[in-house]
Amino acid sequence: MSISDNTSLQLPKENPEAQDFLPLLGTDYVELYVGNAKQAAHYYMSAWGFQPLAYAGLETGLKDRVSYVLQQDKIRLVLTSPLKSGGEINKHINAHGDGVKAIALWVDDATKSYGETVKRGANSYFEPRLLRDEYGQVILSGIHTYGETVHVFVERKGYKGVFMPGYRPWKPYYSPKDVGLRYIDHMVGNVGWNEMNQWCKFYAEVMGFAQLVSFDDKDISTEYTALMSKVMSNGNGRIKFPINEPADGRKKSQIEEYIEFYNGAGVQHMALATDNIIQTVTSLRNRGVEFLTVPVSYYEDVLDRVGEIDEDLTPLRDLGILVDRDEEGYLLQIFTKPILDRPTMFIEIIQRKGAKSFGKGNFKALFEAIEREQESRGTL
Ligand code: FE2
Description:
This protein is α+β, with helices and mostly antiparallel strands and 380 residues long. The strands form two sheets. The chain has a nine-stranded mixed β-sheet with strand order 6-7-8-5-1-4-3-2-9. An eight-stranded mixed β-sheet has the order 11-12-13-10-14-17-16-15, sandwiched between helices. Helices cover 22% and strands 34% of the residues. It has two domains: 12-169, 2,3-Dihydroxybiphenyl 1,2-Dioxygenase, domain 1 (Roll); 181-377, 2,3-Dihydroxybiphenyl 1,2-Dioxygenase, domain 1 (Roll). Fe (ii) ion binds at residues 186, 188, 269, 271, 348, 358.
């Protein structure tokens, strides 16, 4: 299914306080700068079930970089590596390791989105530019957000090509089966001490977002570590950006560990939605993806906390899937270990069964699991 299929857009008001002056139609793609895009692409295909979609590199006329585009239902990843030394991508990788450079947002009008956000105080990443080929045209523009992360606005009015001008179809012989991942549920940013409110203000004032929920250090603390988090969302609720900052604890928090190894603010995790978390996580585990586990004791009283659920408890316990409930329903979620050598980015798998929240009831069990990992890295 193509992300650009949806032409008659109804934008329900999920977050009535947000002003959708852009408006954002969805996440168009997430671009990661990585040391070795060819091998990273193989990992996301073989372990995560992404399908090869498009390619740009020396063969398409690029001189200094290469990009592979992968897709699974509505999720598109772009993996980009430099081909020469000393450029902007090299500097990014040197500073941060592999990580998310761009969260690209699908809009009706990239020129207006750029103008409106820059007028409201966004720093320009690049001015609107028109890309054209035989399949149509795409307009891109970009602004900076936290750390060295950027948002690219993508206007693809009826573009018929495989991804965008400059890319050619990529059809390797190897094309693995997907694992049932459907769309990006949310993308979380970690920012430094006392920077959370500043970045929430950025999303409110510059992007027209409103706050959905917040968690303070009393919600999210263990004996050792704490963090604070606010969730910002756009008007139609399709884009949700929780922002975390460290809070004082007896030992170093996972957010501080991230900031230290990422060398600044950046994307902490992507949450990818599935309609069948048991199947998805079983496939991912069989393909080598490593998840955080919670003690078996978590499952002894979980149903007392969350009430009736449709799933059998046994596979949830065997896989380490967590459950939480809010006023509107429940959700199932699980988190990978960091997917890179630096303890920075990880991926969450989430299945929502009515719940619109983020698993607050699991934070404590989860953070204790993360601390056990930090302990083994000597970074707690
Ligand atoms: Fe999350």
